[in-house]
Structures are given as structure tokens and as C-alpha cells.
Amino acid sequence: MATAIEIPTSDIKGDKTLLGAPIMMFRNARSRQHLICQMISRDLRLKCHKRIFGWLWSLIEPLTITITFWLLFEILSVSSEQYRSLNILIGIVIWTASRRTISQGTRSLKNNSGIIQRVAVSRKISIHSIVGVSLVTLFLNLLVVILLMAWYGLKPEVHILYLPLAVIMLT
Question: What is the mean pLDDT of each run of 10 residues along the chain (171 residues)?
């Protein structure tokens, strides 16, 4: 007599409301918070290799790209904008963060597909750790944006309160 094969169910628990998926995602990430924090710490150490140049490169990279684009736009553009370099820097910081998250997340799933299929570990943990590393890098890059805002004499307005929501939606 043949026995029925038991199909494993998902480890996601939660309701099926409109906001159910994000709530379930945060709930599951919180239950594995220690493992995700360890993976983020490991990835940051590997990225920066315990050298100051690795952390410094996170600040220099958006500045060099901004200078390049600023020079290009100054040469090609007829009109002049007062905060052109700030606009370019913000665009580069956001674009780099989203590009890095998507490409590294895809690469991680591809490279770890064997482990994901064999071991009972949620594939979301790997993605959460990559998002965490991207968020740390994003906040380092935002320090450069804050410095440039101070250079121009700009003060944050009440709209800055939307930044955490925008960052969450970005990731």
C-alpha cells in the first residue's frame, strides 16, 4: 500500500489582507533577526576587508560618479541649475542602491541555489542580508548627500520624514 507523499508547506504565517505580505515579510525577518544580522556583519566585513579604504570607497564612489556627470552636464547643457550636483548625487545614490540590491540578490540566489534546495533555510534570509548591506551602504552615501546639502546651505524640511518610507519601498 502506497503512502501519501507529504509536501512541505511554506514557513510563512500571516493573513491574506492587502498589507499581509509586507507584514508577513517583516514578521519572518524578525524571527530570524539574529541570523540576518550575522550575515550582514559578515558581508560588510568581506566587502570592506577590515580596511578603512573599503569604507572610504563607499563614500568616494558616488562622489566620483557625480563629478563625472556634473562635468558632462555642465559641458552639454545650455541652462544652469543651482543644485545640479546635489540632484545628480541623490539620483546616483538611489540608483546605485537599487541596482546593487537587485544584482547582488539575484547573484546570491543563483550562486546559492544548491544550498537553498538542499538545506531547510529560507531563501529570504539571503535576500534580507543583501538588503541590509545595501541599506548600510545607502546610509553611508546619504552622509555625502548631507554634507553637500550643508555646503549649499540647505536645511532639511518636513519632507525628510518620507525618507524611511522611501527606503523601505526601495528595498
Answer: 48 57 73 79 73 74 86 82 86 87 84 73 75 84 86 84 74 62
pTM here is 0.69
Using CA atoms, how far apart are residues 25 and 36, in angstroms rounded to an integer?
Answer: 13
DSSP string, 139-165: HHHHHHHHHHHHHHT----GGGGGHHH
Q: Pull the grid cell for residue 145.
A: 548627500
Residues sharing a CB contact under 8 Å with residue 68, sequence separation 6 or more, in sequence order: none
Contact call for residues 170 and 130 (beta carbons, < 8 A): no
Helices (H), 32-162: 33-48, 52-76, 84-111, 113-118, 123-152
What's the pLDDT at 139?
A: 85
Question: 88, 66 in Cβ contact below 8 A?
Answer: yes
